[in-house]
Design brief:
By secondary structure, the protein is an alpha/beta fold. The chain folds into 2 domains: 314 residues, 3-Layer(aba) Sandwich (Alkaline Phosphatase, subunit A); 181 residues, no CATH class. It is built from 14 helices and 20 strands. The strands form 5 sheets. Strands 7-6-5-8-1-9-19-2-20 form a 9-stranded mixed beta sheet, sandwiched between helices. Strands 11-12-15-14 form a 4-stranded antiparallel beta sheet, with helices on one face. Strands 13-16-17 form a 3-stranded antiparallel beta sheet, covered by helices on one side. α3 runs parallel beside α14 and α6 packs parallel to α8. InterPro entries: Alkaline_phosphatase_core_sf, Phosphodiest/P_Trfase. This is Type I phosphodiesterase / nucleotide pyrophosphatase.
Length: 521
């Protein structure tokens, strides 16, 4: 146990909470607990890499490093030596351990509950609850110590957060989701208060995942299988915000009086503009120089296996899948997304499936990929240029609106970093136009094709991330003057609070506005 005495610090992640929604709820009085904790001060903006690689954001917090240094870009990550997508949850592959596991025996004692995107629980000198009520999960649901999981189920019931239903739902299904997320916030409050009162800790890292899920599925206008005029849908998202506001207020009330409380979100949630489901066909046409016009072609008849799958209601399939092991669920996801080729000798470039927002493209590079066929140097550069200039030629045939804002080389980002981890070679940034009502996609160079998902994108997500988050220190009451910080700055602030030296390679600097004296809560 730690020999030193530390002032307790609670880092509460209101995960995926949109800054404009928070400011509106505070000003209009329907987020009373956050209003009381903010005490008339300002939210400090936090910039993240959500506009580049949304899956890199939480790893940036855990490591205090930039994406090309920590190398994690999605829930499922391409692994060149196995030629498949795998979860970055293996210490022998990528160091995924959060900074708090490395404090050492004399460092602060840690209680981490549903830190978003955290790896599986591992033995260390603190207490962890992983993927219990979190939306953004990377590690398997579990705890350290291991027997804590059974105790939590006995005291608080099975986790209320379910796996996301991937696809458009009915109005009744979304309202059921709202109720589940409200229950999840309540359960998270009870669980956190229980552990905060009965566990020795100096650092509490607590995540609330309900608003993250709600922002993806309940953002208006919602995406439905069947039209609905149910007015309750328009208030579903604010109701989940209110439930989390109440839960956060309960947790703060249960903390020690001398505890510093920092509330934050690393990114926000706005209407979905991702068109990732169109990328495979766009990329195929660019690679094969296909100029055909298939916009009038009928919908292809599905094969037997997809027909059998589609015959089972979406909600039934999701309920069954939830009980499968994580490895099996990942395998099914890779299969249905056609994530891996059967004959790599014919694949020069391919889409990565670890992110469902930005497009990620990988070159099948000889000497890097186990079965690579594209030669490094001139051939690699030419192929990257072919893709980067070809993809933006696709537009909405009806309006002429661009579908892609930019295709960027990951090697052109953060150029000051010399030793770079493995990342996608190309990143597709989508335009701000919505993905709905796109009928025909056309390119002056690569023909045209029909969008078979024009009324209901396959993920059913009406909301997606934007790169502006927020943070404030509860009880501070002082304005921040419009200052801005980074994800890595939050990591540095934790070390500064405890008077610990910053680890080698930490990119951030402590945020002074979060370290000044606070009033009693």
């Amino acid at each position: 146990m730690a020999d030193r005495s530390y002032q307790p610090l609670a880092m509460i992640a209101f995960d995926g909470a949109e800054i404009t929604m928070i400011e509106r709820g505070i000003s209009q009085g329907w987020l009373p607990n956050l209003a009381r904790l903010l005490d008339g001060g300002d939210l400090l903006r936090i910039r993240s890499e959500s506009d580049v690689m949304v899956g890199a954001v939480w790893p940036g917090f855990y490591t205090g490093k930039l994406p090309p240094e920590h190398g994690i870009s999605g829930v499922l990550q391409w692994r060149a030596d196995t030629m498949r997508h795998e979860r970055p949850d293996d210490q022998d592959w990528i160091d995924t351990a959060p900074f708090y596991r490395k404090f050492g025996p004399d460092g602060p004692r840690v209680l981490a509950i549903d830190a978003p995107f955290a790896p599986s629980a591992k033995p260390f000198g603190g207490t962890e609850v992983i993927s219990w009520n979190a939306h953004a999960t990377r590690g398997r649901r579990g705890t350290w110590p291991q027997d804590l999981a059974a105790e939590l189920r006995n005291r608080h019931g099975r986790p209320e957060m379910r796996d996301e239903i991937y696809g458009p739902q009915t109005a009744a299904g979304l309202l059921k989701l709202r109720d589940q997320l409200v229950a999840s916030a309540r359960q998270q409050s009870a669980l956190a208060c229980d552990l905060a009162r009965n566990t020795r800790w100096d650092l509490l890292l607590l995540g609330f995942g309900a608003v993250h899920r709600a922002g993806h599925k309940l953002q208006m206008p919602v995406i439905l299988r069947r039209p609905s005029n149910d007015s309750a849908l328009s208030e579903a998202l604010p109701e989940v915000y209110r439930a989390c506001d109440t839960a956060i207020g309960e947790v703060v009330a249960a903390l020690p009086k001398d505890c510093r409380v920092i509330l934050f979100s690393l990114n926000g949630m706005v209407p979905n503009t991702s068109k990732h489901f169109l990328l495979p066909e766009m990329l195929r046409r660019v690679l094969e120089n296909d100029t055909s016009d298939t916009s009038d072609a009928p919908s292809p008849a599905p094969a037997l296996l997809p027909r059998l799958r589609n015959a089972i209601p979406l909600e039934w399939r999701s309920a069954l899948k939830e009980h499968l092991p994580v490895a099996v669920k990942d395998g099914l996801g890779r299969y249905w997304r056609r994530a891996e080729a059967t004959d790599w000798s014919k694949v020069r470039a391919f889409r990565l499936v670890g992110s469902d927002f930005e497009g990620q493209i990988r070159i099948n590079l000889r000497g890097r990929e186990r079965e690579g066929i594209v030669a490094p140097g001139e051939e690699f550069e030419a192929l990257c240029t072919q893709i980067a200039t070809g993809l933006p030629t696709f537009v909405d045939a009806a309006s002429g609106a661009q579908l892609i804002k930019a295709v960027v080389r990951s090697s052109d980002l953060w150029r000051e970093i010399r030793d770079r981890a493995d990342l996608p070679d190309l990143l597709v940034q989508w335009s701000d136009s919505p993905p709905l009502s796109l009928n025909t996609i056309t390119s002056a160079r690569f023909g045209a094709f029909r969008n078979f998902w024009q009324s209901m994108p396959p993920d059913g997500r009406s909301g997606h991330h934007q790169p502006v988050g927020w943070v404030f220190c509860a009880g501070h009451g002082a304005a921040t003057g419009g200052a801005e910080g980074s994800v890595q700055d939050l990591t540095a602030t934790v070390f500064a609070h405890f008077g610990l030296p910053a680890p080698n390679g930490l990119r951030g600097a402590p945020l002074d506005a979060l370290l000044e004296p606070t009033r009693a809560l």
